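User: Can you predict the 3D structure for this chain?
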Amino acid sequence: MSLASPSNSVVNIASNSNVIATPSNQIRSPNSIKRNSTPNINNTIPNTSKHSDTNILRDNLAYHIAEVHASVGLISEEYYIEERRYNYVTPKSFLELINFYKNLLKLRKDELIENISRLETGLDTLMRTNKDVSRLQDFLKDKKKEVEIKKQASEVLLEEMGKQRSEAESQQLLADAEKLKADNMAEEARKLEEQAAVDLAEATPAMEKARDSVDCLDKASMTELKSFTKPPAGLDKVTTALLIMIKFEKKDFSWDNAKKMMAKVDSFKEKLETYNGKEIPEDVITRVTPLLDDPDFNYERMKTKSLAAANLVNWVVNILEFNKIYKRVKPLMDSLEIATKSKRKAEEDLAVVNDKITVIESKLHNLQTQFTYAMQEKAKVESEYKDCLDRLSLAERLTNGLSSEKERWSQTISKLRSEAVTLPGDVMLAAAFTSYIGAFSYTFRQKLWKTIWLQDIISRDIPITANIDPLYILTNESQIASWQNENLPSDRMSTENGAIITNCNRWPLLIDPQLQGIKW
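Assistant: Here is the predicted structure, written as structure tokens:
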């Protein structure tokens, strides 16, 4: 990015410059500047010391500013001799340097204070967190012991409750059997006979409904049923019941197995028609009965999915209902004669059994209440125990992770505080760089800031960072990389010009014959 103007003169790129010509013989040496004419920059220097060193630093900065202004005039003469290009400096340039220095120093000082404050706040938070975590660890250790004690006590109680409940249930089952036996024997033979007749009459319609359901099955509806690649919701319950009842299946209740069972429609219907509803094994009933509780296991709902499935539902429901009634009737008929003979004795025994049932039911109720409470307590302490373990694990991970952050932030705070001491000199060099150096070529730039200005700062005991580069006071590596991504050339001159342009107070004059600056 060239800085040569069309008139073969050099234009100061810094915003603090002015284009009014000033003869070089009007530039005064800093040795001729009186202290009472020193510009008022007292408010531009941070309080780096509470003693008289602060006043000395202010004076040295004031004389250095004058040296910067005077040196630019001298270098401009050399610049003209070597490269035949003019550079103009005026009193306005001097005043603009002071103003820019004040603004830049305030900006960098505020940034530094903000960074230190932010890190100190974070460090204080980390220290408080470490203390909180330490207290939490102690608390969790005590809590862990407490939870373990409660857990053990709860387990002992639960074990005892389990034993007592098992005994109570055993006694209740015995009492129920005694009561059922007494009730059966106390019933008059006539009532047993009438009940048997009524139950048999109820069983007949159920069996007829089961047969009708089988008769309603035809090849078309069965073929439709088997054509399903995947059974609709609820249909798997129907085929599961059929597999248990027809094939006594215990494991494979898949749709493929069901389709194999129904593969030959005539043979399948024959099995349904000849099914012995009187002799259904108890384990089959036990496994099928829960399926009937499914809301889809009824004729009306299943009919919307498959007519054949709906008829199969009817068959299962009615054949089980028939079996239920039949099994209820048969014991009544068998015990009819015995009940008649034992009527009187059963009535005497019934009173004794009823008294025993009353006592056992009361005991069982009390035990059930205690057992329920014990289960709730056990679940509660187990949940607390798990939560405590999780919190302890997280606390230990947090403590270990915070140790490295504490050390890193402490080091960063120390570094920032050391930067605060050299901030006046660092910003002074950067401000002069921005204000005056843009018009010069690389060689003259290096001579000005590195040979003249930097050495003058060091000679006046103005604090400044060792091996300082003013470019990195004005910008940083991240911003430079961003500029280069935006097509700013990567050479040192272009980077310096980019830093000047982005930091100066006023729009600089940019000589850009190759359009590199415009593109950027």
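The CA atoms of residues 21 and 88 lie 5 Å apart. The two ends are 10 Å apart (CA to CA).
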